[in-house]
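Worked example 2:
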Amino acid sequence: KHFLAIADQYPGVRLEAGGEAEMTQDALGGLLGAVAIALVGIWVVIALLFGSLLQPLMIMLIIPFAVASAVFALMIHGEPMSFFAGIGILGLCGVVVNNALVMVDRLNRPSAGEDSSEFVEHMIESATTRLRPVLLTTVTTVSGLLPLAYGLGGSDVYMGPMALTLGYGLLLTVPAVLFFLPCCYLMIREITFFSHGRD
């Protein structure tokens, strides 16, 4: 904003990024490539583990929630999108995928029956049993990250944004893991059973 104000005062002046700012832009561009490779790797590993092509995509639906939560945390704190904030978002994607894997693995266990009402009860029970582990891991991780994010005991301009995105992103994606993911699982199950029934 300060540079834009100077540019408004001197219309003939042209601003170009150089030095550290230019290196940061290049690093962010390389980070986007790393994110794409990480997403493909996550999808391949989950597909091999679960023997399904749909379940990895369903699990990876949590990632947009994580990214939106991290960007929201940066916005409300007035922090710019930096390279270390991007590293925090990349790490956040891995953590929330891990939580989603735990939930889907529990949902994949045999239920009491194939009836829809019985499966809904199984889904509610699964979400209930995973509530404590997800909350415990989230609270302990966030409790360790937020002092670094707010600079309690000493601030770090590099690690602070990373801790901020990771902490708030993990905290705000808990409802998505506990509620949104089981609903997606139920929808995919109903669609799959419907298509098999028609065949």
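The chain has eight helices and no strands. Confidence is low (pLDDT under 50) at residues 194-199.
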